[in-house]
Specification:
The chain is α/β, with parallel strands linked by helices and 663 residues long. The protein has 22 helices and 21 strands. It binds adenosine-5'-diphosphate and magnesium ion.
Length: 663
């Protein structure tokens, strides 16, 4: 699709994922520039102001090194006088003329009645263009170019967009049409327009989403298992009693819910959510034990080789010789792999631990009854689907470490049953978090202290490859290795699995008590005596990720320290880290994390494993989600109503695409 005569612009649009008119007109403004004039009786110091008037002095131009300054005097229509300064825009100098009229937007300093200019426009802004959309765009496309392109299509007579929301609901909530909503948003006359437009897109999105989850749930509940033996719950209880520690109350409830599901006629489709360290794995292990009790096989899929290894070792210990546990990861030699596949097929393994290698074409299970997916948000939709399709009657247990409050879970995960672990088995976790400006010397002092106490130190960086101004894990590794020679290992996704395993082993056994890595350690690695976590470029991570990462330390119940390092990032970014200093409560953090996200913040959302929304915000639009959820129920209960036909159809299509959607 060519939108512009310029190939450069077309390519840039393509890279933004804008490949249709529909995509173009749904790229909404990031914010608006408001040219509404400020009341001059209400000018506030240091605030943004908009004034209109004329130049009453010839502009002066000064250059100091790299800095350029234009100055002039200005009088508004109300005869108020201002000193105007414009920094670093030398090209404006020639276009400014004495006595000409301008609209000026800038920051006001009342000590000398100065305005520091952000935007200056010749003449008066027409009343219907007072609110100018500002778009997120790559450097190839100017804001006005994009705005004009959008308007060209939007205000074209030919365009027609069908309304998705049923007419009666549009009336009930006084919603304008989808097309009018877009016009309001891209070319508002006032902020009321923007609000009215967004309300339509958000409600539509909420309604379609909640419809989908309810449709998927109905379909799941209709799936039946056949010829299943009941799991003997007294044997489950015996097993629990034989463990070396007592389950937390939440674990007991989760186990009960899961075993009930597994003994139920319809297939289990359950999410087990809980903050890092709440002991999700043990619950999953008991569920797998249950599957084995009725002669099924169980598979658990982990996102990394390292985590799969850890689960494998733990389970061999946990189950002893009675239950045969196998490991299937990408790094096996072809001979080893063949042997493992053979044993899976012959049911010589009861439980199979692995990575995505578990669902390769050539893996055939004898009788796969339960699939557990650890850190499920790390997997794509198809991967989860494929693994579950390896058995005829597979129960599915998804595990997620981004917990959210129950009411929210009900709305977001309407298609899943949810068990939640809130209690920690070790409730004397004592992690002190500090937000610090990056300084290796200071960091090394903390590291020395840890080494003295024979503890382990995690060092995390966001990047493998170099990115302007940011630390890469190789840089940081080099700096640490210079200071703590031979005591440091490096771990990142680009290493071979042998190298990864070696790095991790050396770290765990203490040969190299410092581990520098990317977020590969975010997921699940359990090393008891790590008491220091150093995170470089912390503002690059989402809050929920940072919380997950720091969950790796203090697992022995002793005091641990997490350092969140920033360079000279935006103050705002640093402030957001403070919440981690204040609380260890994963629920609070997840909620804050979601609230901080703007709509369409896809990367962030992917990180936290939440479904992502283009328009609605899960927290601030929560009421709307709840209303939409009720409307969705009503629609499905009255599915024969012709008015609902098209939206149900649409939701079904989306549901088919998203069956094992990113929860
Ligand atoms: P996560 O929920 O983050 O996956 P894990 O399952 O890795 O947490 O559990 C964290 C640690 O707590 C593990 O070392 C595990 O053995 C231990 N653990 C789990 N349940 C209990 C319990 N009931 N009592 C004591 N320790 C437990
Ligand atoms: Mg885990």
């Amino acid at each position: 699709m060519k939108f512009s005569k310029s190939d450069r612009i077309n390519l840039a649009l393509e890279n933004m994922g804008i490949d249709s008119i529909d995509a173009l007109i749904h790229h909404l403004p990031r914010t608006y520039n408001d040219f509404t004039l400020t009341k001059e009786t209400q000018l506030a110091n240091k605030e943004r102001v908009v004034i209109y008037g004329r130049l009453v002095s010839n502009p002066t131009f000064v250059k100091k090194g790299k800095l350029t300054i234009i100055r002039f005097s200005f009088i508004t229509m109300n005869n108020n006088f201002f000193n105007i300064v414009i920094f670093n825009r030398p090209y404006l100098y020639r276009s400014l003329n004495l006595s000409d009229y301008y609209t000026i937007v800038g920051h006001y300093d009342n000590s000398n009645r100065t305005i520091n200019v952000q935007t200056i426009v010749k003449g008066q802004i027409p009343s219907d263009e007072m609110i100018k959309p500002v778009y997120s765009l790559p450097s190839e496309i100017e804001n006005y170019q994009f705005m004009n392109m959008v308007r060209k299509y939007l205000f074209n007579e030919q365009i027609s967009i069908p309304d998705i929301v049923p007419f009666s609901l549009m009336q009930k909530y006084h919603l304008i049409s989808h097309l009018d909503a877009l016009k309001h948003i891209h070319a508002p006359k006032n902020f009321g327009d923007v609000h009215a437009g967004l309300r339509v897109l958000k409600y539509e999105e909420c309604l379609l989403f909640t419809l989908q989850t309810q449709i998927i749930r109905k379909e799941n509940k209709a799936l039946q298992k056949s010829n299943k033996q009941m799991i003997d719950t007294s044997k489950i209880n015996d097993f629990i009693r034989s463990l070396k520690f007592k389950l937390t109350h939440d674990q007991v409830i989760a186990v009960r819910e899961i075993i009930l599901d597994m003994n139920n006629q319809s297939l289990m489709y359950r999410l087990l959510q809980g903050d890092v360290g709440t002991g999700k794995t043990l619950v999953a292990e008991i569920a797998m034990y249950g599957a084995v009790l009725r002669n099924d096989q169980a598979a658990i899929m982990a996102p990394t080789d390292a985590l799969a290894h850890q689960h494998y070792e733990n389970m061999k210990k946990l189950f002893g010789g009675n239950i045969k546990v196998g490991l299937l990861v990408g790094s096996l030699s072809s001979g080893e792999r063949k042997e493992v596949l053979e044993k899976i097929k012959l049911h010589e393994f009861d439980i199979i631990v692995g990575t995505h290698a578990l669902f390769s074409e050539d893996v055939k299970y004898d009788k796969l009854g339960l699939v557990v997916i650890d850190e499920q948000h790390k997997f794509g939709v198809n991967q989860r689907l494929l693994l579950a399709s390896k058995g005829d009657n597979t129960d599915l247990l998804l595990m997620s470490a981004t917990p959210i409050p129950r009411t929210l879970a009900l709305t977001l995960y309407g298609d899943l049953d949810v068990s939640t672990l809130e209690e920690y088995p070790v409730d004397n976790r004592d992690i002190v978090t500090k937000v610090l400006e990056e300084d290796d010397k200071e960091v090394f002092r903390y590291v020395e202290q840890s080494l003295k106490e024979d503890k382990r130190v995690f060092v995390v960086t966001p990047y493998v490859n170099s990115l302007k101004g940011k630390n890469t894990c190789e840089d940081v590794f080099a700096r640490f290795n210079k200071r703590f020679l031979g005591k440091v290992s490096l771990l990142h996704g680009k290493l071979s699995s042998e190298e990864k395993e070696e790095a991790l082993n050396n770290f765990i056994n203490g040969d190299t008590p410092i581990l520098v890595s990317t977020t590969v350690i975010e997921v699940g690695i359990d090393v008891k005596n790590a008491n220091l976590m150093v995170i470089y470029d912390a503002p690059s991570f989402g809050l929920a990720s940072l919380h997950q990462i720091r969950g790796r330390i203090g697992r022995d119940g002793n005091k641990a320290t997490c350092l969140l390092l920033y360079q000279d990032e935006e103050q705002e970014d640093i402030e957001k880290l403070r919440i981690l200093e204040e609380t260890l409560d994963g629920f609070k953090i997840a909620e804050k994390d979601l609230a901080l996200r703007g709509p369409g913040d896809m990367n962030g959302l992917k990180q936290s494993g939440m479904p992502n929304f283009a328009f609605a915000n899960i927290i601030s639009d929560f009421k709307m989600f709840e209303i939409a959820r009720n409307d969705a129920t009503y629609i499905l209960n009255n599915a024969s109503n012709v008015e609902f036909k098209s939206i149900i159809q649409k939701a079904k299509e989306l549901a088919d695409m998203n069956k094992f959607r990113n929860v």
